């Protein structure tokens, strides 16, 4: 019943920006913390950013801090990840996750950073 649908991925040049969105349904979105994970080619999945239910507590991976911004709009049941100053090493499939790795996962959206 929980559904998480990512969008906004695509091909972008180094230094560019993308905004990922995650449309959530099937649960009380505003009562759950949410996370973005990613899995790059040849790498293990990693937590990119996490946000508490009301947005008051936010954590980022060191590799994206200062470049990415996680946010949420509880009125729209939507989670966002604004990605700026993108680097080739940001290339990965990005997943919207309910809570953390133990929660429900979306299908993912591909982000490719390349010239």
Percentage of β-strand residues: over 45%
**Secondary structure tally: strands:** 10
H-E order: EEEEEEEEEE
Question: How many helix segments?
Answer: 0
Query: Helix- and strand-based class?
Result: mainly beta
The largest sheet has its strands arranged as 2-10-9-4-5-6
| Share in helix | under 10%
Main sheet properties? 6 strands, mixed
Distance between the termini: 39 Å
Write up what this structure looks like:
The protein is mostly beta strands and about 120 residues long. The protein is about 0% helix and about 50% strand. A hairpin with a 6-residue loop joins strand 5 and strand 6. The radius of gyration is 13 Å and the shape is globular.
Quickly describe the structure:
The protein is an all-beta fold and 115 residues long.
Which helices and strands, and how do they pair?
Elements: E1 3-7, E2 10-12, E3 18-25, E4 34-39, E5 46-51, E6 58-60, E7 68-73, E8 78-83, E9 92-98, E10 109-113
Parallel strand pairs: 2-10
Antiparallel strand pairs: 1-3, 3-8, 4-5, 4-9, 5-6, 7-8, 9-10
